[in-house]
Structures are given as C-alpha cells and as structure tokens.
Amino acid sequence: MERFPSLTATIITGSGLSGEYAAHPRIRYFEIDQVEKLPDGNYRSVDTSQSFEQAIASRKRAINEFLQHQPADIFIADKEPLGLSGELSDALKILKAKGTTLVLGLRDVLDEAVKLDLEWKEKGITDAIEAFYDHIWIYGSPDFYDPLQGLELPSSVVSRCSYTGYLYQPHPEFEQLAPEGLPDDYLLVTAGGGGDGDFLMNAVLSAYEADPSISCPAVLLLGPFSDSAHEREIRSRAQRIMGTAVIGFNSEPETLILHARAIIGMCGYNTFCEVIARNKEVLFVPRQTPRLEQSIRAERAKELGLCEVVKGEQADDPASFADDIRSLIQSTERPKPGHNLDMSGLQRIGEKVEAILAARNHPSLEVEHVG
C-alpha cells in the first residue's frame, strides 16, 4: 500500500479471520457469510441455521449491494471466476457496466487438466472469463507450471494471461526474532489453513510414538480452521511425547518457518511460497482429494530438487514415516541443489496496478479484492 499513498482497498471475504490481522488505515474488510469445505469437496454454511444455498444467496446479495454503491477502479477475483458457487455472476455485470477493470487471479496450479476442463465447461467459466475479465494474472512462474495447460481456451482468453511470479513478501525483521517457548532446534509441521490437515498431524505423532529416538522435537502448527475436537485430541497426544509443542492459529508463521530445522507440510500455495522462498528443507505430504492441486505442485517441486514428497497412504505407516522424518532432518546437513523460483509477484502486481491506473488517466483510488 505504501506504493500507492492515495489508494484504498477493500477485501471481500468469507474467511472470518479479518480481525486476526494487523489493521491498516486504508484497507478495509467486507465480510460475507462463511462457508466451509468438507473432506469430500462439498461445502456447507458455517451458520447451521441456514443451508449452503441460502448462504450463497446471502453472499450474492451482499456483494451486489456493496458494489452497486461502491464500485472499484480495479476488481480482483481470487481463483474462482464466478465465485465459489456463482455468487459473482451479477457482480461482474455490475462492475463491467461501471467501467471497472476486472482481473482474475489464479494460483500456479489449479487441478488436473481433464477435471478442470470439464468443470469449466459445465459452469460456463470460459465464456464468463472471455466476456468479463480484462486480465488473468497467474501467481506463479512459467518455468514451474502452466495451470491452464490442457484446457480448450480461445486465443482471446490466452492472450489476457500473464505470470506475476510467486506472491511472497519477505519480512527481514523476523530474522531477528526467535519464537518464544520453543526448542532451539525443531521440526515444524504445518497444516496451512488446517481444515483438512488433521491427518498430517496425527501421522507425525504416530511416527514419533513409533520411534521415540527421533532427535528433533516437533512443533505442530494447526492452522485457523482446525476442527476443535480434533485439536483437543492432537494436543492430548502431543502432551505424551517429550518436547512436542502445539500452536493454534499464527497470523505470521514466517518466524516459525525461518527458525525451524526443517518443515513438513501439505503443499498448499502459501506454505509452498513461504518455505521455498526461505530455502528450507521440506517434506510435503500433499492432499490427494478433492483436487490434485497440492499433489501436482509437490511433485513438480520434487522434480526441480526443491523438496521431498510422501503420499498420504505412505505417511499412514508410522515406522516408514519415522524413517522419512529422520531422512529429512539429516538432509539439513547436506548442500541443497535448487531451482530459483521467481518470488517477485507482489512487486510485479504493483507494477500492473500502476499501469492500469495510469491507463485510466487518474491517480489510484480504489481496489476491490474478493477471495
């Protein structure tokens, strides 16, 4: 935001975590009804008094009303071109009519091509992108992966695509901070958001139970969406393993990552960026369902020498997974070959926003982001 002193930004969010982050005088949050993803890939309303369909209808009304009265110069949609379940369909029309520059932001990996192509055709997503979006920003690098490969896209859509590089913001001040109350040497286990990471936490605990001689203590970072009942069970198990620590939500995990000897994670986008940017030794245990996003990202990173990968069913064997953990810990003593990923995405997005605002012939005013 410092680059644009007169810019204000609104983040339209259904995460429920806006209050956990440091406030900024020119960034505001507009909260809509929360929904949560189930293990099978379906969703439900967090508010149990309403159905998922009612939650989506409420989100749609709220977004439409907000944008009718407070249209933006730039609107960035995160990952889902039409929203989670079509709630942006009318909003895109509203913004297009008001002359807003519409941007679709996509992660470096979405899903396997066959499944994604079918989904986009069934939902009319390609047609919607062609009709509404002016730019498609891919938050990755072309030498890592093309998230749209294998899709039948018109040239008019392909021509709007550009790679930004990965979205990583280094915080040098964290290098001077040591995590309080943790061992000097530890293995960090992170579940990202945490909603579906319980299997990873339990797999690590089982490995430590099977092999108490693992020398590096584990620190388990559960994530903000960890199920409360599962969290209690994990904490109870961890208390019986000497040296193991459990941390709930942490809005700034970089300090934990920076000071860890090695990392075990699921290979979600944010974890991937934070770990790879810090050149940490990492073992990914990617989720296999409902999408292959994490698995594709992890396997590609392994090809480039950036990580090691263990599949979920392999992690279910405590003795075998304990061996994997030992190997990971020992690998910190070996030189690490590497592939330098482009981590300048935030800087490049700033340049793109600057160019859009310049083309609109006025200073920066308002940016909306929905995600």
Automatic annotation (TrEMBL):
Protein name: Glycosyl transferase family 28 C-terminal domain-containing protein
Species of origin: Hoeflea prorocentri
